Amino acid sequence: MLFNSSETLKMYGVVPVDQFHVAIFQYLGISNFCLALLTFLFRNDTQTKNIKNVLLVSALVNIASTFKGCYDIFIQDVPGNNFFWADAIFRLVVGLVTLLVYFKISKKRFNILLK
């Protein structure tokens, strides 16, 4: 999204590609990159609260983007394609797995506090 916006837009079915779509995709690419970088930097953090916050925000970004895409296709009548569905399903799975890890960490911490 960030470095090859034109080709990514073509995969999503945006033809012809204009500068406004490229700018939006690059902006989204920056936010995705920074979220991934944040997750990478906190991967070995010992502060459970920081890890939980990163996991929760990551899950919300992935799940919300899937729902936004489905809203656009089903309610706004934006044409979808196979690439969108593959991307949406992948994002949803990543979001749900991240949410599962978040709750697993929360449960472990809760059990430690009870002991």
Notes on the protein architecture:
- The chain is mainly alpha-helical and 115 residues long.
- It is 78% helix and 0% strand.
- The chain is built from 4 helices and no strands.
- The chain has helices spanning 5-11, 19-41, 48-74, 82-114.
- Helix 2 (19-41) packs antiparallel against helix 3 and helix 3 (48-74) packs antiparallel against helix 4 (82-114).
Summarize the structure.
The protein has 4 helices and no strands.
Oligomer: single chain
* Overall spatial form: elongated
Classify the beta-strand content into a percent band.
under 5%
Mean pLDDT: 83
Order of helices and strands: HHHH
Query: Which class do the helix and strand fractions yield?
Result: mainly alpha
Largest sheet: none
- Number of H- or I-type helical stretches: 4
What is the radius of gyration?
17 Å
Helix content: over 70%
Low-confidence stretches: none
Q: Would you count the extended β strands for me?
A: 0
Distance N terminus to C terminus?
47 Å
